[in-house]
Amino acid sequence: MDLTVTVRIDGAVVPAIRGLSFELPPGKILGLVGESGAGKSMVGRAIAQLLPVGFSITAGSLLFEGEDLVQMPLPRRRALLGRAIGFIPQQPMTALNPVMTVGAQFDEHLARLGEGGYVERRKRAIAALAAAHLQDAGSLLGRYPHQLSGGMLQRVLIALAFSSNPRLVIADEPTTALDVTIHPQILRLIAEMQREHTTAVIFITHDLRLAAQLCDQVVVMYAGRAIESGPARSILSRPAHPYTRCLQLANPTMQDERRALYVIPDQMPSLRQLQKMPGCHFAPRCPLVVENCRRADPPDIWIGADHRVACLRAADMAAIATIDEAAASPEISARIVLQVEKLQKRYRIGDALFGGARLVEAVKGASFNIAENEFVALVGESGSGKSTIAKLLVGLEQPSGGRILLNGDDLTDPSLRGRVRRAASLQMVFQDPQSALNPRRRIGRIITQAMEAGNRHATWQERLTRTKELLAEVGLSADFATRLPGQLSGGQRQRINIARALCNIPKVLVADEIVSGLDVSIQAQLLNLLARLRSELGFGMLFISHDLSVVRHLCSRVLVMYRGEIVEQGPIQAVFSDPQHPHTRALVSSVPPDDPQAAWPALKAALAEY
Amino acid sequence: MSALARSLRSPRVLIALVMILCILGCAIFAGQISPNDPGDQNLLSILIPPAWAKSGDPAFRLGTDSLGRDVLSRLIYGARTAMLVAFFASLGAMIIGTVLAHISGYFGGTVDWIIGRLVDVWMSFPPVILSLILMVGLGVGLDRVILAIILVDWTRFCRVLRSEVLIVTRHDYVAAARLLGFTHWQAIIREVLPATLPLLITLMSLEMAIAVIVEAILSFVGLGVGADQPAWGQMIADARQYVYQSPWNLLLPALAIFFTVTAFNLLGDGLRRTLDVRLSESGR
């Protein structure tokens, strides 16, 4: 398959994908890697002919088995899509029709493939689901999508995609919406199905380590251009483009010594900015940039048999050294700030009036401490009660039992004085920076919001001074004060979020998945920011996350939560290198290894069977 | 505020505002611009057609009614009644409905349940019948009409706003404000209310149209403002008996009502299109 696609936006014509070419032989997995906005999903959409309004293919071809999908008449192309070309979506929860049973949707798909009678199709469907390692496939067909978990739905969709025996399957971030512990299983299933059917797979992901494990070929994309492509393992062990290298260094690792993360400054240029940017698009952020880079787009250079890179300075890659500066791990004082004892939370769900109500224990007797200056991680799968603990701590929910002691004072006391004290010493940074900032307030008013709370009436001058201080703390210039949240990028919004929580200089910060929606380079900026703020302000933090490598980088102690209970806790290194509880083991094994040459036991275990 | 400025550029809103300003002008300067006293009876010249008709009288530009009162003057004074009712009734209904909606949507739980059921019970009475019953109990008069409309129509605000408050309250920034030490009251006023304000303004302009109609209905059945005060509904009721001799007397107040209601609906629709975040974002 040889493919060159250019996509343009109407109005001002801007290329969203510029002259992308790659070949994918049958039975191989190609990884499209890049941060959001790199144009990687656009490739899948171009093949499916599902481009957003305003985008169109203006040049190039999409050759599928020698036929051009772009020039092909519509009925012919439609016949290929869903049969010879299958899709695995990003959000399995919304990919199936909620009012039809799984069986009905499977049947519809098989009928469209021209499969015989109903009985025949049902047999095929059951066989396909069984091949996807779904137990009790027969009864599964009678169920509705909302009755299945995300992981099961993704298995159903994988079975559906492979049921037509396709020659090509496009998987667009198939694991991002699922729990980390399920990732290896889903990836394993895709790899297994791919081998069984000798299907070619385009695997779109933002995770370099994952691509190294799963893919044969990798194309790294940046701002709509393939900047590096070649065999997966050689690219990722010897990256030839500064962006690939920086991305690797920006990602916290699971094995190496902890070090400060490499920070790629700024962020990926938007499509509008790209218009006015001659030369290499990575030049403004590149550590190796020279004058020539800014003049013209660098040509592709072949540095190996099939390793191609679009960079003038590929030979000087060694210049980007790891930052040796060890991550500041400050003295953790023995003084305990926050003490949580046997914290419980029960929810009553169901109809309270007409019976049928039952109690659900979201948190069952959690006890832990946070010392001054200490970052404690809370990990666990979704629904394990992590966010409930966060809400209980900051007082958005009242505990059903147990105590929360801050410097020895009980915070669960609901009086007004208790609330004021809590507001001054315990703050929360929210997961979704978009929802956490009032779109009608200017940034300056948002971050000093604490100064208009209760009976405090700070003068405008005081607030302005504090705004400037706080913006400087989180590394933003003072002119942000007059902007609205809508004008900020995701990373900047999260900085504002942190600044607001810091306004009263809290003792303990609760951070709920604050980097999960962000790109690796932005995530590195924020993690370094948090580490710096800790050494300056000396607050403790409860850092809730599902990403173990981030947790390992930032925190010194970890609490593992499973079904409302803290099943394991201890120093990070000890817990991760020698996990005791089965759930901790599952979590640790779900992280792909840093070294692209190393084997990933969770994935390989299954592949070895073939 | 930029949203309000943007809405002023919408042709819908501009046309509606011009229409409303005309009516408002009539209402405020009724004493100055009406050619005759609206209550002056002239039993010698009853049911005169408008001035441009064959037997018209230039002294009564739109003719006279069955008691010889000047129709034009009565229409102008009727605008005063209609505007007073529209403004105060919708303001009152807005205040009651908004306060209850914010309490209900913000706190949720039992409070929400109680207010929700109250609205359910209230809305199960047909609105016109309910206002008629209220008028029978309260007696006639401008203030009673306003009170009756408020008591009937607050539910409209409460129901629609409550769902909006629910959505806004679920945003993390409201929780963040609480964590920073805002009291519930501060959180509602400074964080939730600004977000529901566009919907509130829209609803209020639609409510004004409804208030004009309800006032006309009440006046029509004689349970509206007192007989000494001119109102469009009353004029229609009076003209009903002589509709064959003098159709103008019936048509003109009906047209006035139509014009006013159209203006308010147009304003409400235009505001909704420009102020509603969901609509304006998807349309962009």
| Helix/strand/pairing category of chain A | alpha/beta
Given as residue ranges, the uncertain stretches of chain A (5+ residues, pLDDT < 50) are: 606-610
Number of helical runs of chain A?
23
> How many helical stretches of chain B?
12
Amino- and carboxy-terminal Cα gap of chain B:
18 Å
Largest sheet of chain A: 8 strands, mixed
Compute the number of strand runs of chain A. 23
- In whole angstroms, the N-to-C terminal distance of chain A is 27 Å
| Percent of residues in β-strands of chain A | 15-25%
Write the layout of secondary structure elements.
The complex is a heterodimer of chains A (610) and B (284).
Chain A: E1 5-9, E2 14-20, E3 29-33, H1 40-48, E4 55-59, E5 63-64, E6 67-68, H2 74-80, E7 85-88, H3 92-95, H4 102-112, H5 118-131, H6 137-140, H7 150-162, E8 168-172, H8 183-197, E9 200-205, H9 208-214, E10 217-222, E11 225-231, H10 232-237, H11 242-250, H12 271-275, E12 301-302, E13 308-309, E14 336-349, E15 358-371, E16 375-379, H13 386-394, E17 401-406, E18 409-410, H14 416-425, E19 426-429, H15 433-436, H16 443-447, H17 460-473, H18 490-502, E20 508-512, H19 520-537, E21 540-544, H20 548-554, E22 557-562, E23 565-571, H21 572-577, H22 582-589, H23 601-607
Parallel strand pairs in A: 3-9, 3-10, 7-8, 8-9, 16-21, 16-22, 19-20, 20-21
Antiparallel strand pairs in A: 1-2, 1-4, 5-6, 10-11, 11-13, 12-13, 14-15, 14-17, 17-18, 22-23
Helix pairs in contact in A: 4-5, 5-7, 7-8, 8-23
Chain B: H1 2-7, H2 11-28, H3 30-33, H4 71-107, H5 109-123, H6 127-138, H7 142-169, H8 172-179, H9 184-220, H10 232-240, H11 247-275, H12 277-283
What's the quick description here?
By secondary structure, chain A is an alpha/beta fold. The model of chain A is unreliable at 606-610 (pLDDT under 50). Chain B has 284 residues and is an all-alpha fold.
